[in-house]
Specification:
Largest sheet: 10 strands, antiparallel, barrel
Number of strands: 15
Shape: elongated
Mean pLDDT: 92
CATH class: Mainly Beta
CATH architecture: Beta Barrel
Radius of gyration: 24 Å
Structural class: mainly beta
Distance between the termini: 42 Å
Number of helices: 1
Helix content: under 10%
CATH superfamily: OMPT-like
């Protein structure tokens, strides 16, 4: 065998022995930024409690910094399974202009009062990508959400809180439009409505694809929802200015 033929044969053998570069199987997504509140209405218990607004009767300590993280597994070309951790807490300070009864405790008017609203979210999502091309991806799925929520009030030497952990099923969607090679528009979220309440967590962002596996985005997110049942009445709305980083591996 000639020298060039021997080199070619050796090269082909080496290439065949090397593992092929596979498509990424995971995405790690980290998001942070500022969050502020425009609505935090409460009446606990729903019968016998006093309606008040943490954001209007008291003053929010916003904007606050926030963080959330998501890990997504791609078991198949069109399938996504993800885990999300999204904690959220905001403090409020001020005075009520009337007496307030909350969770069995009376709070006086014209007295320094502190409040807090906590809404931690843990979500498991399955999504199927119906449309998947180089320029556009669109998928829908279902999210199993566990929310750990708490409202607290404190005044002088007394304090009380109402907390609860519950399960909420949501509809998930994700749309990516890569309108140019380095940039894309991204919108994704979870939402569902019912007569007893609703939940919406959705974002819209501009992404810059630094490489095929690393992207950075800036955008806006809204978290809105609440419940009106025999036990509690709570509705809130939070706005986010976000910066996100996504790494595929």
């Amino acid at each position: 065998m000639s020298r060039p033929a021997s080199l070619l044969a050796a090269s082909l053998l080496l290439i065949s022995a090397c593992p092929a570069i596979s498509a990424p199987q995971f995405d790690l997504d980290l998001e942070s930024g500022a969050v502020w509140n425009s609505k935090a209405d409460v009446r606990i218990p729903n019968t016998g409690g006093t309606f008040f607004s943490l954001s209007k009767d008291l003053n929010a300590s916003d904007p606050n910094a926030y963080f959330r993280g998501r890990l997504t597994w791609h078991p198949g070309a069109r399938h996504d399974i993800s885990l999300l951790y999204a904690p959220l807490e905001m403090d409020f300070r001020g005075q009520f202009n009337r007496s307030v009864r909350f969770a069995g405790t009376d709070f006086a008017a014209a007295t320094a009062t502190t409040g807090a609203f906590r809404f931690d979210s843990y979500r498991l999502t399955y999504r199927y990508n119906f449309l998947q091309t180089e320029r556009c991806v669109f998928g829908m799925g279902i999210t199993a959400k566990v929310r750990d929520a708490e409202v607290r009030l404190a005044q002088g030497g007394k304090a009380t809180s109402d907390s609860g952990t519950g399960f909420v099923p949501l509809v998930n969607y994700r749309l990516v439009w890569r309108f140019s090679k380095p940039f894309s528009l991204l919108s994704e979220g979870d939402a569902l409505g019912a007569p007893q309440g609703h939940a919406v967590d959705a974002s819209a962002a501009l992404q810059w694809h630094a490489t095929e596996r690393l992207s950075v985005r800036v955008g806006y997110r809204i978290l809105d929802g609440g419940a009106d049942n025999d036990t509690v009445y709570t509705f809130s709305r939070f706005h986010y200015s976000l910066v996100g980083l996504n790494f595929s591996f």
